[in-house]
Amino acid sequence: MFVVYPPHRPQVLQTQLEYLLQGQEKIRSSSEFTEQALSQGSETEVLLVKKQMSETLNELAGQDFPLQPQENDHLDLRVETDGVRKSIQNLGVLITTSAIAQQTVATGEGLRHALIGQPTTVTVTTKDKDGELVKTGNAILQAEITAPDGTYTEGEIVDNRNGTYELLYTLKTEGDFTLSVTLYNQPVKGSPYRVRATKPSDAAHSPDDVKRRVKSPSSGHIRQKAVRRPASMYSTGKKKDNPIEDELIIRI
Hints:
252 residues, alpha+beta, Immunoglobulin-like, 4-stranded antiparallel beta sheet, 3 helices, Ig-like_fold, actin filament binding, Filamin, Filamin/ABP280_rpt
């Protein structure tokens, strides 16, 4: 789409305008000079400038000012569809994703704890409405860390181009901070998070450094002693068919 007109048209019209403005200024100054001489000058002064005023007025009266535009007002719009189509094709591509905040999750120790002065990392995994991983990047993620005094800073988002993103932030003071992670201006699952910032010297040691071996007490066996109960007066020397008849008293 373009407009076709003579390339000299603006210059012609601008020159005409300047010429008219100069003529207007000349008429105004001559009129003021004549009026001042007639109203305030003496007869002698009027006679002295009479010739000059006559020449100036005659010159202005005989001057031909181009009052009509020296160019026409014809403008024609010609639409070139082929050019528009090519321009759109070369303009760029449309980018979108199927990620939604309700299914997107953030993971990492940085959601709970951070060391002062050391970069902290959180991994954000974008997912679609079915909870499936979105395998492309370009999602609009934002992270905001609010300090105990109400001030806030923004975290850095690194796009891994595979549906996951790395959130990086560094805290400078101790205290409890609030970390808000949003996807398309909507909070992701679990956001906002409460993060406690501590000094590196106060950080807990790893489990390997605090292992303690605790020996379990040895288990003792309980021995039982069986004592034959004296035979009853009704018993006989004949061996019983039922061995339970000779009861045993168990002493612990």
